[in-house]
Amino acid sequence: MGDRIEGVKKLFTSKSARVETNMGDAHYDKLFESCQARIQELKTQTPRENRLDIDDLLQDQGIDRRSFMKWASAVTGMLMLPASFTPLVADAALLMNRAPVIWIELSDCAGNTEAMLRSDGPKIDEILLDIISLEFNETIMAAAGHQAEAQLEDAMHTFKDKYLLFVEGAVPMGMNGQYGTIGAHGETFYNHLMRISKHAAAVVAVGSCATFGGVPAASPNPTGAVGVMDVLKGKPLINIPACPANPANMVGVIIHYILTGQVPELDSLLRPKFAFGYRIHDNCERRAHFDAGEFVEEWGDTGAKNNFCLYKVGCKGPMTFNNCSIVRYNEGVNWPVGVGRGCIGCSEPDFWDKYAYERPMADANIKAPTGGVEKTVDEFGLGLLTAASIGIGIHAVASVIAGKTENKEY
Amino acid sequence: MNNTEIEYDDKLGTKRVRVRRMTFTMRLIHWVNVVAMVVAIATGLYIADPYYQSFIADDAVDKYVMAWNRWGHLIVAIIFDVTAIIVSYLFFFSRFEKHYLKILPTKKNIIEFGEVTLNLLTLNRRKKFDSSHSDSFNSVYFIIFHILLAWMLFTGLQMYVHALASGDSSIGAWWPWMLHLVTDWTIPFSSWLVGTTATGGNIMDVRIVHHMSMWIIIVWVVFHIYYQIWRTIFWQEGDIAIVVGGSKFMKIDKDGNKNIE
Fold first, then answer.
1. Whole-number average pLDDT of chain A
2. How do residues B140-149 score in pLDDT, each as one tens digit?
3. What domains, with CATH codes, occur in chain B?
4. Degrees (nearest 5) of the Cα angle B148, B30, B42?
5. What is the domain extent for residue A244?
6. From the CA of B64, how many Å to the nearest CA of chain A?
7. Do A381 and B180 touch (CB under 8 A)?
8. N or C: which end of chain B has fewer CB within 10 A?
9. B182 touches A: beta carbon within 8 Å
10. Chain B residue with minimal CA distance to A2?
């Protein structure tokens, strides 16, 4: 009931999804100067335990300066900045090791970490995530147990009020949070998050679980899982949903933070507008087949072989806001619709219950508005219509048999 | 307001007086709405779940099936927008008939509403109200439809405006700006209606309630048609002719009183 009341409160405070792509020359001139000053200041700082050098890393992977600058101009475009910002973005990328990051995992499958680690040949996005000053990450760190906890304490102390906190996974709130604990002290995920976020400069929720609860929060949500934004108040928070979140968008947020010292413009769900301001559908390579009414009717049919639209096998591109139809995954290699399966709306709240059922909404077994019993919307509507028809039928028959017609004589 | 026109004698000595009930504009709006609704439902069901296939051998440019369905759906939606604005104007300012006076919860209106309902439930055995003018049951039923229609328009325009993601449209940037301003509230409201286990609303919820509301409107239409036919048969006042010719009959007895029990 509480969140329903919150929903009503949000009624008239909901921010528009509109993306402002051109803020005017005056704005960009001013922004350029402030970004330049910030980059200069960062350059004078010594890097944090500079274990890896970006130039060496890029060279090792066979990525030349030209490719790197091409990547920088693409990121500039993605962040919706004018082309003149490209050198600043390149500088900011090289300075990413000045940003200390603590990465924690809660109720999740570590899929976002995996997505970065297992990418086919590290691309520039993934290399950059290697050189950020990653102070703590359970999945990839060598330390374990008390040693790992000591490392976390040390990082929190050393970079107090300066580190970026990346959170992966939902926060189970049921049973006083006892569904998820971490470490030898049995600290609940909720307390863990609250303790570490207290002295973070900003919090980045990565993946659908950390942003909106994701799969752990899917109906019936036995652990009472919620997203970070539900429990964390009074901190700058950026949501980067999707399952997994695209490394390109993580890099975009970090670069934006390094460049401007601010969080990017966010929509009503705290998602950066540069990445989540557009529908997948409007930039989809199969869009022409949608307009033509050419659909894959079942897996492997002629339509599927001809790359027809996947709407009838449940693609939710028309209702999903994400940039994966533009930037794709693994630096433009491919994305779900590209490999012939529909979008499951993984960057939207409640995606597991309301998007990921591989058929159109009108043909899906989703909860009726009354809650409880699973019914399709159409069955519910048809049931309502049938009930009305039966009522009308009874009334009509009764009227014919027992009704009183006005003087039939004329 | 003098809506009665022609009088003529009846075999039984009672008179039947023609009562004007709908102006030409009102009838025109009614039939435009009927056509628009049939198109909206036929195309809307296709958009929700494409229920017929186009011939695969045709070129995509010739088919354009989904696009035509969407075009038709959006065009009738815009027509609905315009008629809804005209109707809401006439609702308050029509010189012909002041509908809003009939939905005010006054004692007279509540009694009339009850009497009309009883008339329906008692199969016309009890008829203690003046059936010559638009009664308050009729007005309330009319309002329910227009609230449903407005709800469809707000949710529909919310889904529509996301196709204008650039913030611009063929008629200027003011249009998507205004649509966001006017319809963004439907997202949290729809999520509230549908219920959610996650944080925040999404346009899927808007889609679900838009689709659900269609069924409620169809139920509304089915009862509406049934009731108009039922009135025509049992009241014998030619009610069905209102929407075609604009008038029905009122019976007046020998003494010139309205035929009310």
1. 83
2. 999 999 999 9
3. 25-224 (1.20.950.20)
4. 65
5. 33-274
6. 4
7. no
8. C
9. no
10. B192
| B186 Cα to chain A: minimum distance (Å) | 8
Contact between residue B203 and residue A356 where contact means Cβ atoms under 8 Å apart: no
- Does the beta carbon of A392 lie under 8 angstroms from any beta carbon of chain B? yes
**A341 and A200 both lie in a single domain:** no
Burial of A104 (0-12, 13-18, 19+ CB in 10 A): buried
Q: Omega before A244 cis (within 30°)? A: yes
Q: What is the pLDDT of residue A410?
A: 41
Q: How many domains is chain A partitioned into structurally?
A: 2
Distance from the Cα of A117 to chain B's closest Cα (Å) equals 28
Looking at the fold, whether A289 and A249 belong to one and the same domain comes out as: no
Contacts of B203 in chain A (CB under 8 A): 319
Residues of A in contact with B157 (CB under 8 A): none
Last residue of a domain, one of A215, A250, A274: A274
Closest CA to A170 of A88, A225, A100: A225
pLDDT, tens only, B192-214 = 888 776 666 788 889 989 999 99
pLDDT at A110 over 70: yes
Could you tell me if A296 and A166 lie in one domain?
no
Sign of the C-alpha dihedral, residues B232, B237, B239, B244? positive
Q: Which of A345, A304, A316, A321 is nearest to A270 (CA)?
A: A321
CB of B54 within 8 Å of any CB in chain A?
yes
Q: What's A260's domain CATH number?
A: 3.40.50.700
Strands (E), chain B: 4-9, 15-20, 247-252
Q: What is the pLDDT of residues A359-392, one digit of tens each?
A: 887 777 655 444 444 456 677 778 888 888 888 8
Name chain B contacts of A219, Cβ cutoff 8 Å: 197
pLDDT of residue B256: 60
Regarding whether A212 and A331 lie in a shared domain, the answer is no
**Together in a domain, A154 and A222:** yes
Q: How far apart are CA A125 and CA A246, in angstroms?
A: 10
The answer to whether the CB atoms of B54 and A221 lie below 8 A apart is no
Residues A261 and A313 in one domain: no
Averaged pLDDT for residues A319-328: 89
Residue of B213, B41, B163 whose CA lies nearest to A318: B163
pLDDT tens figures, A202-235? 999 999 999 999 999 887 788 999 999 999 988 8
B243, B26 Cβ separation under 8 angstroms: no
pLDDT in tens, B83-92: 988 888 888 8
Tell me: ipTM over 0.85.
no
Q: Which 3 state secondary structure label does DSSP give A291?
A: helix
Model pTM score: 0.80
